Task: structure prediction
Amino acid sequence: MKVDAAIIGAGPAGLSAAIEIAKMGLSVAIVDEYYRSGGRLLGQLYEDPKQPSHSRLWDGRKIAEGLAAEARQYGVHILCGVTAWSASPSWQLHMSASGAGVGSVGSAGVGSVDGTGANGSAASTEASEHGLHRVTAKRLLLATGAAERAVPLPGWTLPGVVSVGAAQTFTNVHRVALGRRVLIVGIDPLSISVAMEMKHAGIDVVGMALPVRSSANGKISSPMDAIARLSAVSDLAPNPLLRFMGRMSAGRVERLAAHLLRGDFLRIAGIPVMVRKAVTSIKGTQGVEAVTLQSVTVDGTLVGYPETIEVDTVCLSGGLYPLADFAQTVGCPMIDIPELGGVVPLHGSDMSTPTVGLYVAGNITGIESAKVAMAQGRLAGVSIAHSLGRRPAMTIEQAAAAVTQARQESSFKFLPNIEQGRAKMMELWSEGNEIEGASAAWRT
Result:
């Protein structure tokens, strides 16, 4: 298949970009290893207090379905259940069925088709003699999203221990209750959101606690850092105390807030949020049967005596990091910016990279909300259309301003210093372009 633009990742950024590109009469193919499009939107279901009362419900699955439907209307090929393994010069993607897909694409038998081609027929891919398949494109957009960080604890390999992202998918996408009594390890915006979603689904969430301090768990085991992370969701909190604590942390008095939260009186939707207790181990033989908890100081040091709580499921939340492996594979310069969540591709304000023809959007550039990812996707789509000689109704500057606005209006802020991280990236991008020959050296 030959197209003007190929996109890896059918989440909010990838779908939004595809729509902007296809609107200009350009051909687009999206590749995603999951069996359906939507990415992390599929698991999101919450009320957004920053929106008018009649439109506060954020139903990610419906939004994803709407984006996919609009993309199909513009003739975008959405290839699901397909994994892109590598890319050769001139952006020829090498792919194979991921095993997660259902159905088939024509006679090639690769993955499923979520949509139809520009001519109304089912999309198809070229099959090589070795069973590989490929898409050739003039431009490549990486919208590969994010992955969850591991939270190693004694007993974390027992059946009944899942990541919080998996819990969200089971709850909101598949409508499956993971257990009868669930405890969440890790206190951050994502775990709080999932805890509330599970509670609304009728699951007994017995509490949230920190993981025991270790070299692997780092800051996520710190009560003071947990308090700081609460500030990112304080606007969503139905609990006045949590809103108060969030604002306190925004005022950089985390230590005082952590001292004040020695008891278990902080609750969200009735769920105890235990910022001064850590899970030291998960117990069980054939599966999860209980967890061992112990109080900690504001610095995360264990004190007091252990206690046991019976549960049958444990959800681990260690936060998200940008899934940027493919960018590294194709030679894009990478930068480690902790404020963005880790190692990200070097990119400019228009989402282009130093690698000719390569663009990025969404969580691969830094961990933010789906609203920001969608705005970034539209910006990347406008930039790609411009690079191919088209003139979209929205200018690159207008699309970039929409990203800033989406960030300001977002109720979720996964990383507390995301603005500083974005500023660092722009500074590095500018410095690179000011150094004579540096920009050319980046380009491959």
Residues 100-113, 115-130, 434-444 have pLDDT under 50 and may be disordered. Residues 213 and 221 are 5 Å apart (CA to CA). Residues 370-387 form the longest helix (18 residues). The chain is about 30% helix and 25% strand.
